[in-house]
Amino acid sequence: MGKSKAALPDLTKVIELKMDFTAARLQRGHLLLKQGKLDEAEDDFKKVLKSNPSENEEKEAQSQLIKSDEMQRLRSQALDAFESSDYIAAITFLDKILEVCVWDAELRELRAECFIKEGEPRKAISDLKAASKLKNDNTEAFYKISTLYYELGDHELSLSEVRECLKLDQDHKRCFAHYKQVKKLNKLIKSAEELIKEGRYTDATSKYESVMKTEPSVSEYTIRSKERICHCFSKDEKPVEAIRVCSEVLQMEPDNVNALKDRAEAYLIEEMYDEGKSLRNLICDT
């Protein structure tokens, strides 16, 4: 059923009742190895070899002991690489370890940190999500996942993850502070989008200006806010303002289709037909 943590106490009790039960000790060694508890796993495999095992059990224990030794060596190399800030090398070593130690939460968190240092936040999120399931009450993982989503501009997923942190510890200071920030930003964005649906473009523009003031340090929110302000000006038939703001967005994201489209509409409103047609052709190519 994949419930290794629940299996370990039963296997341990079996071994207490019958010390020479090699099948139980071998099975516990397998689970400990998968959890990255290498010293404990090696101890079980060595004891299997000392307790008159069957031929198959002896071969398996020897094989697993060799594998455990290899994992020890790789883990030492991964830690050395991390300490030396060689994050690509550390990731390479950790990839190999985690093929065997699939339930090791600490190593997944370490690889996530390497991914963050290498500018690959989505890969870090994947490891941290696994770590949050492998380790009980892992508030730190939920906090990191939330902040990574936030920096990527995904405020809704950020809010969802920080709530998971607060479910585990409602007094968690960093999670609570982050929760207040994300909740405020999320409320502003949702309100702005509702105003756009209602055609209240001036009010929506004001809301998105508040978004930029609320979070000036994460560029993703500035870009998305300006993109939506550009849209509001275009829909509100304010071509001069729309062209200005859309152009600001396109300086940051030259291939932003929404900004290209809205600037094209603004050009047409201004009767700048050549510019409008040129942009529409560019949008089609994009």
From TrEMBL:
<feature type="repeat" description="TPR">
    <location>
        <begin position="139"/>
        <end position="172"/>
    </location>
</feature>
<keyword id="KW-0677">Repeat</keyword>
<keyword id="KW-1015">Disulfide bond</keyword>
<dbReference type="InterPro" id="IPR019734">
    <property type="entry name" value="TPR_rpt"/>
</dbReference>
<dbReference type="GO" id="GO:0005783">
    <property type="term" value="C:endoplasmic reticulum"/>
</dbReference>
<dbReference type="GO" id="GO:0051087">
    <property type="term" value="F:protein-folding chaperone binding"/>
</dbReference>
<dbReference type="Pfam" id="PF00515">
    <property type="entry name" value="TPR_1"/>
</dbReference>
<feature type="repeat" description="TPR">
    <location>
        <begin position="22"/>
        <end position="55"/>
    </location>
</feature>
<dbReference type="InterPro" id="IPR011990">
    <property type="entry name" value="TPR-like_helical_dom_sf"/>
</dbReference>
<dbReference type="InterPro" id="IPR051727">
    <property type="entry name" value="DnaJ_C3_Co-chaperones"/>
</dbReference>
<dbReference type="GO" id="GO:0051787">
    <property type="term" value="F:misfolded protein binding"/>
</dbReference>
<dbReference type="GO" id="GO:0034975">
    <property type="term" value="P:protein folding in endoplasmic reticulum"/>
</dbReference>
<keyword id="KW-0802">TPR repeat</keyword>
<protein>
    <submittedName>
        <fullName>Uncharacterized protein</fullName>
    </submittedName>
</protein>
<dbReference type="Pfam" id="PF13181">
    <property type="entry name" value="TPR_8"/>
</dbReference>
